[in-house]
Amino acid sequence: MLETVQHDEILEIRLARPPANALDTGLLRALDGALREAEAGGAAGVVLSGRPGLFTGGLDLPFLIGLSREEILEPFTAFFELLATAARLEIPLAAAITGHSPAGGAVIAQFCDLRVMAWGEFLIGFSEAQIGVVMPRSLVQVIALRLGWATMADLVVSGRLVGPEEALELGIVDGLAEPEQVVETAVARLGKLLSVPREAMLETRRRVRRPLVEAMATGIEEDTASFVDWWFHPETQAALKAAVARLTGRGR
């Protein structure tokens, strides 16, 4: 599910769950644990990456759509807990967005200090609304903190996806690179950050990221419960089943 590559003091954690790096309970828990282990193991920083052409397809809809209300609590809780871990991580975190990154992938990227996306015909964005999913309160808050309220409202309410150039313009990502150089660029940018006097940088980073930590520190149970309620709303279920049919080819 995950592969790791060491770049001197920076650890690259690569999502490796074919075909789409879709986020199921196992991958979410594995990534949460890998971030914690990287911090505890002395890594100076972490770069998250995916396969060429795809960072992650987001939450694993075909897996989730078959779960009961009780069963679905586990993957949703795992998702929120991963984001909480990313928010409070004591070492800098970068995203090497190697391709498409809709929904959950775009959300995870907003918890990273640096975000580099591949040039090309790739799309990124908060597409939950397009499949009938309501964006949780805490994530609305985090995205607004990162992008500004007006940009957040436009993207989250419409659920529209954008290409790399517009993503850079809107602040969804911080830089662009050729597809084969995305990881190298993310590592280099993270290395430049790490070259700043370390203790002062880390303390300043803690202060800057405090609103992200606070957004995820309270209300996970409330957000999960609300997410579950909306997930089983008839309109949402219809939209999700249509999306799964498209993904699996059953709608042809």
Q: Helix/strand-derived class?
A: alpha/beta
How many strands, what sense, and barrel or not for the largest sheet? 6 strands, mixed
Shape: globular
Mean pLDDT over all positions: 95
- Class in CATH? Alpha Beta
Counted by DSSP, the helix tally is 11
The total number of structural domains is 1
- Low confidence ranges: none
What does this structure look like?
The chain has 252 residues and is an alpha/beta fold. The protein has a single domain, classed as 2-enoyl-CoA Hydratase, Chain A, domain 1, CATH 3.90.226. 52% of the residues lie in helices and 15% in strands. The strands form two sheets. Strands 1-2-3-5-7-9 form a six-stranded mixed sheet, sandwiched between helices. Strands 4-6-8 form a three-stranded parallel sheet. Helix 1 links the parallel strand 2 and strand 3. The two termini are 30 Å apart.
SSE layout and pairings?
Layout: E1 2-7, E2 10-15, H1 25-40, E3 45-49, E4 53-54, H2 61-64, H3 73-88, E5 93-97, E6 99-102, H4 104-109, E7 114-118, E8 124-125, H5 137-147, H6 149-158, H7 164-170, E9 175-177, H8 182-194, H9 198-217, H10 220-231, H11 234-248
Parallel strand pairs: 2-3, 3-5, 4-6, 5-7, 6-8, 7-9
Antiparallel strand pairs: 1-2
Helix pairs in contact: 1-3, 3-9, 3-10, 5-6, 5-9
